[in-house]
Design brief:
155 residues, alpha+beta, 19% helix
Length: 155
């Protein structure tokens, strides 16, 4: 939750300076122990893995930052079809609940943890059920009353 809120704050700061969310790249927020930008943040895909500088089963969350109008697109400024007037952040637990029983890099400890969704329009929900990038970051789903699913909670 803290990381999602930190990203949301930085997105708002970016918009205050640039009048849109276009061009946001949160890489500067994620530096490794040597002070260089961590490989945990992929600015091209606008994806972050947590904790910083881990992979495989040690990874606990995958965080995705997307355009609010077209959540299949990033805000990195390379796509002329988006306006960048809103944002969506999905923090998906690295669990078999989200990625399926065949997942070999899932963290078994994450199966009982929440996944989180936050948008610039005020949606803040969490669920222990499946919350995947393919189904959650869909424009129709995000406009629904319960974008995190029927058994989700607000946070």
């Amino acid at each position: 939750m803290q990381e999602v809120q930190k990203l949301a704050e930085q997105l708002e700061r970016h918009k205050a300076r640039n009048f849109s969310y276009l061009g946001f790249n949160g890489a500067y927020l994620y530096k490794n122990n040597l002070g260089s930008i961590s490989s945990s943040y992929d600015g091209t895909k606008a994806e972050l893995t947590l904790p910083i500088d881990v992979a495989g089963k040690s990874k606990t969350y995958m965080v995705y930052i997307r355009d609010g109008g077209n959540p299949t697109k990033t805000l990195n400024g390379t796509d002329d079809t988006i306006r960048g007037q809103g944002w969506v952040i999905l923090a998906m637990a690295n669990s078999t609940v989200n990625l399926g029983e065949g997942c070999t890099s899932c963290n078994d400890l994450q199966n009982g943890n929440y996944s989180f969704l936050m948008t610039s329009t005020g949606v803040k929900c969490k669920t222990k059920l499946a919350l995947t990038i393919e189904k959650t970051l869909d424009a129709t789903n995000l406009k629904s009353i319960k974008p995190c699913g029927e058994k989700s909670e607000n946070w």
